[in-house]
Amino acid sequence: MIKMVVFDMAGTTVNEDNVVYKTLQQAINEQGFSFTLEQVLAEGAGKEKLQAIQSVLAVYAGNNSVELADRIFARFRILLDQAYATLEVTEQENAGSLFQSLRKEGVLVVLNTGYQADTANGLIEKLGWQRGEDYDALITASDVPRNRPYPDMILRAMEQFGISNGREVVKVGDSTIDIEEGKNAGCALSIGITTGAHTKEQLQQASPDYIIHNLNELMPIIIS
Question: Which Pfam families does the record cross-reference, listed alphabetically (predicted)?
């Protein structure tokens, strides 16, 4: 029996027009690079954002400078605050109704994200989601020692609600690293969704149990 579904945020349950990754791209390219958004998404999607910067630099520029990555990350945080001042955020199609349907079935709804806590909470505030009404918990990259693809965020959520068996948990996300996270946590299902960072073909590289194209496809999979 499934007791908890862990959802990624941006691209999965939150539509913020890729502003975080566009801002990440801007911060990196200000240092003399010319990476495309597709490159940033391919290597950075789903990761804690300093980790994402490090991955992009290492893969596409062969640059492993900790100092450079830290400098870009600091600039990214400034640019993101500026972008958020006027950012319009909406939920992904059917997110809110899915949350309500799951919670009515007694299934916990947990949000997890590679964002820092202040960024994640800012998105939730813009959406007007309320903990205990729309979702049950938020676990962010700030809350755990290791980020995706390590399972720490999912394990933290399980511990919070007294769930000891990963086979009672489902993970849903829009990037390969989300799927890897779910598998590493021993989840019953790791499900990819094509509404965000990675295409169906990219998601298939992580061997998800399912790939869906809209959140309304989840209930028949989870509740049988």
Answer: HAD_2
State both tokens at 179. Answer: 């799927």
The model's pTM is 0.86
Give residue-wise pLDDT tens across range 48-66.
889 999 999 999 999 999 9
**How far is CA 121 from its chain centroid?**
13
Q: Is 112 helix (H, G, I), strand (E, B) or coil?
A: strand
Question: What is the model's pLDDT at position 115?
Answer: 82
**CATH number attached to the domain at 4-16+89-222:** 3.40.50.1000
Percentage of residues in the chain with pLDDT exceeding 70? 100
Sign of the C-alpha dihedral computed for residues 212, 217, 219 and 220 taken in this order: negative
Where does 19-84 sit in CATH, by number? 1.10.150
Chain centre to alpha carbon of residue 69: 21
Per-domain boundaries in the chain: 4-16+89-222, 19-84
